[in-house]
Specification:
By secondary structure, the chain is an alpha/beta fold. The chain folds into two domains: 311 residues, TIM Barrel, CATH 3.20.20.330; 25 residues, no CATH class. It is built from 13 helices and eight strands. An eight-stranded parallel beta sheet has the order 1-8-7-6-5-4-3-2. Helix 8 packs parallel to helix 9 and helix 10 runs parallel beside helix 11. Bound molecules: zinc ion. The site of zinc ion has 4 residues, from loops.
Amino acid sequence: MGESKRGLLERLNADAVICAEGYLFELERRGYLSAGAYVPEVVLDHPDAVRQLHREFLRAGSDVIEAFTYYGHREKLRIIGKEDLLEPLNRQALELAKEVAQEATDEPALVAGNICNTNIYDPGEPGTEDSCRAMFAEQVGWAADAGVDFVVGETFTWTREAEIALEIIKQTDLPAVVTLAIPAEGKTRDGDLPAEACRRLEDAGADVVGLNCYRGPATTLELLEQIRERVSCHVAGLPVPYRTNAEQPTFFHLPDPACDCLPAEGTFPIALDPFTCNRFEMAAFARACYDAGIRYIGVCCGGAPHHVRAIAEALGRRPPASRYSPDLTKHFAFGTDESLKEVNVGYRDRM
Ligand SMILES: [Zn+2]
């Protein structure tokens, strides 16, 4: 990491920071990862696929390359019977992120370590707090060894679990970004309103607090605004790019009456395609965040590079992928270029 590289907080104080997430869903769609267990073995099995997606997000304008260690934790590796891969997977994921971050054309991208919901936390079993601590500590230790710029703790539905993650991140000197995933009821599973939970995380030392996953832009923004009013630190918003609404505030139970061949479990997680937000919706979300003073802006499960580029352009940027941004003036039938043939342009409304 060069000395000229600015840190996360310096960048947030100056402007927005864009963070692309959604590696699990995108690599699943590409055929490198299995939905269900969602363990990122792709890091070891097909490192080029991970490198390539990091690179696409970077070209699309992500300021952060997040090491793909989401669900690369001890509990997930236990479920697939491969705990022996835990450390090599984490170390390799961190190396891949560092490698691609250096490819940024301007200033190197920020490299983030990542820890997440353990799926073992249970308030009815106090012993699970220490088990979570141990799981977070090993992953944060490997991230710190790799020299990451900051650590993300994300997708926590329990405030308490997020606090434990934060406690472990704070044992390093690294900035901590802690984001909650808010279920349909609008509260964390401990019963806290998102703004109150975020305030507690700020008081406990989080540098950036906010929300990721579960909810689309439409049902995330209002909560983010409440958080923005309640905390004084920077706020993060990384929704899933799906059209959630007041009736279905999360992406778990979206009905698709237009499809008669859905699996019994419904549209989540592998038949969400018809609800995908387009790039204009993600651009509008990014602008709304920025106007509301929310500066750490991104996308979670379902996000793809075109969403990230739309966010970057909405914030006035022109990342490398903007070289190929749409120019419909040259479309053979829908364009406006003077040289287009009237026989086609005049036919557009009947196509
Ligand atoms: Zn997500």
